[in-house]
Amino acid sequence: MIERGKAGHPDRATSPRPLAGNAVFFPLATTYAIFVLPASVLAMLGLAPAFPALASGTGHAHEMLFGFALAVVSGNQLGPIAAKRLALLVGLWMAARLAFLVAPQSIAAAAANIAFAVLLAVQLGPRLFGSAKKWRNQALPLVLTAICASAVVLELALSLDFLAAQRVTLAVAVLLFAALMVFMGGRIIGPTAAGHFHRQGGKLDARVQPRVEGGLLVALAIAIVASAFGTAPAAVALAAAATCVAGVLAFIRLLRWRLWDLRGRPDLLCLAAGYGWLAAGLLLYGLALAAGRHATAALHLVTVGALGTLTLNVMLMTWSLKARVDPSRSPVPIWATLLIGAAALARAFAGLGIGEPRALLLCAALCWSMAFALLLVRLMRLSNHLAGR
Known about the structure:
The protein is mostly helical. Helix content is 77%, strand content 1%.
């Protein structure tokens, strides 16, 4: 006989417990990060013919954004979720990765990637839209939904071999991820810094900075819409100006946190480094668009420097707090952040023609993989710590 609680429902112990999305997606994303970037660089240099899907800029960007980064987003935003639904999402993500690597323009690859993006949007959208009251908070579900939509559009463009649509969609997707980092980075760094200032006996008034955040979101929204119009001169000029404004506002927000006054929080400074890469990348990308050159090199400050640093440190901080381990006690964030910074600089220099490009690209790939290998080892140790509690 099934035991019933006070309300007459079956005992909750008999029902499957929801699982945290980050428990599965963070290790998967970390493992994939270690593999995919060096595999792509080696393929593009003609040194790894086994991965032709990663040998193009489009294939490289596809897997870095919609393979690695979207897996991190999934783990960060899903929260507790039914085990069967999580298994379906994970299965679709893994099927999408395998299908794309084997046959990037196949129906199987398009179907798996589209199914994952649509199911993720359906899982996240209603909950986040329902809980967001202020317009700035509505930006989170809007951006997440738009990222999933851009994944669908890119799959269709790949299936139709529509090169112009592929380029436009990837440019828009990078700015969408930048908007997500602007929002989430500010909501993590500002309040955490304020709490630590309070414990030091000080005070930080500039926390979320709603006016600056609002300006950032508006500027990035303009840049995203303008970028959707492709290479039209007026659209490029507008995207350049809006992106430069966003970069300046991000720098202002970062400076107002006064993180140089913090003591004993190297992990928070590592998150701030990611936000600094974001500000620099947006500003330089806007200037590159205005100048008509080096846009790809500037974008890698966003995708390698900012996205790599912020995703790594957010994953590590999330699991550390879950394991009730002080994130500031580990040297991993410092070394991993330095390695990603080296990877970002090496990739930017390669794009600018400073130094020998092949050596710089290989150096960037090695530094990136080493950073995420450090993260994976730390996640495994934190997992063992959780299992032993």
